[in-house]
């Protein structure tokens, strides 16, 4: 029971307020650090449980450790050492958090993924319906309802809120697929998922909308590949709930909204794109070309980006992030550091693909990584604990999955 409580506390980081901090991520990283301390103290000192996992044999963690090493090396040539230390300690907290979550998941035993999914589903409900509640309070039939930071929910901004919802959709669909012959409960879940997708639509995030399209397409491909063996089950329990929920949210947006309707925002994905993001990408890549081996120093892109974007800066708006985590890391710590980070996801993908035909859980894990990849190429999830905690929990699950000490505690 204690391990489940710690899991709930870790995954709840997105609900933490800023507590007088300028940016709530500072408070959230401190919260995760304190929680790691208490959990590791409990696990190693209070109940003195042995560590059965050989972490040094897991390629995902080896890549993460190499990534941290390259971040450390960048200290020798960074422009602003203090900023590098601040960002590095967040990455280090990430590794410790993955380690803690590995121990938690290992002790949750065979139904660990279901428990993780239920916790995320509960949090998804609160995130989605809090945004809906704000919408109901502010909606006026006589005036157009436009994009507003009021719709950010518990997140720092509306884009983070939208992707947080989209990333949790695979988990609630998995919970749906595990429900056997309980029609009322399934109907309730479709209503909840529809409400959450509609909340995501209210943020106006084109990227998050694209991520939902991508999830539906991925499930359709999965349905085609599994049609002969379990096609009807996949259609009924996985594909249909997500598609039905999206269609309910789609028609609701077409009726209640104009500029934020799904059809309008979908057209803008193709027509508008983002000129500013393309500038940021170009600036980060040009910075990499200038210093391909060592970069500008971890955490220092926010400083060098001013020079890269100086001709297009308006007022006091500066490109704090490259809006592409991979390009930003490439610019900050060079090609070798980038490869160490990139291979965290490559090794994760290889493990998913190796087991996806035998274990349906892996399609939901793949759905999450698809959304995370879209977010990483449009925004900056690497700096947001609300998003990172989802990544950490899934990386921990993959580390534990058929782990190296000869058991399959999370897979039966």
Give the helices and strands, then pairings:
Layout: H1 2-11, H2 24-46, H3 59-73, H4 81-108, H5 112-138, H6 158-178, H7 183-202, H8 206-225, H9 227-256, H10 262-271, H11 275-290, H12 301-308, H13 325-355, H14 361-378, H15 385-400
Helix pairs in contact: 1-4, 1-5, 2-4, 3-4, 3-13, 4-15, 5-6, 5-7, 6-7, 6-8, 6-9, 6-14, 7-9, 8-9, 8-10, 8-14, 11-12, 11-13, 13-14
Structural features:
disordered C terminus, globular, mainly alpha
Describe the structure.
It is a single chain. The chain has 412 residues and is an all-alpha fold. The protein is built from 15 helices and no strands. Helix 8 (206-225) packs antiparallel against helix 14 (361-378) and helix 11 packs across helix 12. The longest helix has 31 residues, at 325-355. It starts with a helix and ends in a 12-residue tail after the last helix.
